[in-house]
Amino acid sequence: MHNRKAIGTVGMMRTVALAGMLLLSVCGPTSAGDVSAQSQSFGAQIAGTWFLQQSSDSYRILTILPDGQWFATDSSQLASVLVVGSRPFSNQQGVWQQTDFKTIRGKMLDFVYPATADQKLQTTMATYELTFGNGYTTVTGTATLRFYGGNPLVPDAQPVGDAITITFTGQRVNAD
User: Fold this and answer.
1) Which end of the chain, N or C, is less surrounded by CB atoms within 10 Å?
2) Buried (b) or exposed (e) across 100-127, using 16+ Cβ within 10 A?
3) Same structural domain, 41 and 53
């Protein structure tokens, strides 16, 4: 009789374990896989090259990769030496993530070069918010730029000066 209870308990434990595995196979990994597949699908939909017109009277060519990386070139980055008080800056590189249905948030970094002998190299961290529309052929958004004397990623990094916010609209560049 004692063995029967033990066998019954083992049988019940097996049933519970199998039910748990079945539940996990239906809800757990599949749900996580769906989210991952959904993010990859979204990345593929927005991937490509975008032409942006900015409120700062410059243009930006933005390239978005489906894996969460992106980079850009700005029409004013080298010409800024011609504007008093402006400084030339490098191409930008960074990462993005989906935050909502057709919306991403990301960060980009670039270097701001000294224009005079008394200036020092700075780093810009730009935080972007982009919303895609019209079947992923248009985009609107903002970029907030903060300047740092060094590495903006260290916990105690403090911005130098005021932040600058730029708004923009843009279109996807097509091959046809």
Assistant:
1) C
2) eeeebebbbbbebbeeeeeeeebbbbbb
3) no
Q: Of 73, 86, 172, nearest to 130 (Cα)?
A: 172
Query: Could you tell me the pLDDT band of residue 13, with boundaries at 50, 70 and 90?
Result: very low
Q: How far apart are CA 139 and CA 169, in angstroms?
A: 6
Beta bridge partners of 21: none
- On whether both 166 and 83 belong to a single domain, the answer is yes
Q: What is the pLDDT of residue 84?
A: 53
Contacts of 66 (CB under 8 A, 6+ apart): 40, 43, 44, 46, 47
Q: How far is CA 154 from the centre of its chain?
A: 19
Secondary structure letter of residue 78 according to DSSP: T
| Domain with 60 in it | 47-172
pLDDT at 140: 98
65 and 32 share one domain: no
| Residues 33 and 25: beta-carbon distance below 8 Å | no
Mean pLDDT of 83-96: 85
